Amino acid sequence: MKRGLLLAGSILAMAAVAAAHEPRVARAADPAPLQIETKIPLGAVKGRIDHMAVDVAGQRLFVAELANGSIGIVDLRTAGVSGRIRGFKEPQGVGYVAPTATLYVASAGDGSVRLFRGTNLDQAGRIELGEDADNIRVDPANNRVFVGYGAGALAVIDATENRKIADIALDGHPEGFRLEGGGSRIFVNVPDAHAIEVADRQRNGVMAHWTTGQARENFPMALDEASGQVLVAFRKPATLAAFSMQNGAQVASARACGDADDVFVDTRRHRVYVSCGDGHLDIFVPENGNFRRIAHLPTSPGARTSLFVPALDRLFLAVRAGHGEPAAVWVYQPTP
Questions:
Q1: Which residue in 214, 218, 256, 220 sits closest to 238, CA to CA?
Q2: Distance (Å, rounded) from C-alpha 263 to C-alpha 232?
Q3: Tens digit of pLDDT at every position of the chain (336 positions)
Q4: What is the C-alpha to C-alpha distance for residues 193 and 238, in angstroms, rounded to an integer?
Q5: Cα torsion for 241, 96, 297, 75, to the nearest 10°?
Q6: Hey, how many other C-beta atoms are within 10 angstroms of the C-beta on 240?
Q7: CB-based contacts of 152: which residues, under 8 Å, 6+ apart?
Q8: Residues 6 or more apart in contact with residue 18 via CB below 8 angstroms
Q9: Would you say 194 and 232 are in contact if contact means Cβ atoms under 8 Å apart?
Q10: 3-class SS at 96?
Q11: 15: part of which helix (H) or strand (E)?
């Protein structure tokens, strides 16, 4: 009996040693870095879905249902749609200002920014920008809301008085842009100018213009301030690139999924998430001064907009209706 136990113990020990020396990539049992937690149906929503915003305290996710002309309100506690605001013309950007409990909705079809406030999301105002109102970013520390619009501008909105107080002129229509947390800069993708432009939100003017070279269609952007980098996903060619926040020099790049529309940094895990319309989520980690793609997860064609919420530790992916499946928000939990 003792001999059998010793033999079994030796086999287990040898297996453990072999497993320890086995290349990590060969372990098929390793969990994906993003795991689907649930899929929340949006109901009768057809066509393109654009960006999302979240009310963390109220556990509400706001979904710009562009082709439907509506904003879906998802209750994250029940994983169901709790309501819908209709009557928009191509809603694209959404932003939520927590201190005033105000939702801002930018519509490309009529160039408006409409405001809704409180638990019931009562109408609270309307700001006319002119045309093609798009992405929204919120600066809660200074009570400002920034909206990209038109042939080349960021509108500066006073979130206390709910009125536009300034414009920041750009060299083309702004796509993805980000506000620096540790300073006053705004980094803006301007694909028509083949550039990233850097504005100062205290002076409301552009202070630098960084060319993107041969890369084209720089739509989504994220900031990795801990590394001092601006992360940009290009569509032509499909690439994730990093630029120095100090001088705009490109410092890293890697092949990425196609038709990217959102990119986020998971600072807790030192990862980058890229969502793409070709039906994939890419996950990267920094390695030896560059990026290494650790996962290329299949999703659904056209599912290119997403939202990573560190406070909830979840990534939300907007999936349009198709192939017999209804529109939905897929909820991913990062692992480990």
A1: 256
A2: 8
A3: 333 333 233 333 333 333 333 334 434 457 899 999 999 999 999 999 999 999 999 999 999 999 999 999 999 999 999 999 999 999 999 999 999 999 999 999 999 999 999 999 999 999 999 899 999 999 999 999 999 999 999 999 999 999 999 999 999 999 999 999 989 999 999 999 999 999 999 999 999 999 999 999 999 999 999 999 999 999 999 999 999 999 999 999 999 999 999 999 999 999 999 999 999 999 999 999 999 999 999 999 999 999 999 999 999 999 999 988 999 999 999 999
A4: 18
A5: 180
A6: 24
A7: 169, 170, 171, 172, 173, 174, 190, 192
A8: none
A9: no
A10: strand
A11: helix 2-21
What would the DSSP string read from start to end of 197-258?
A: EEEETTTTEEEEEEE-TT-EEEEEEEEETTTTEEEEEEEETEEEEEEETTT--EEEEEE--S
Instruction: Give the pair of three-digit tokens for residue 251.
Output: 């410092």
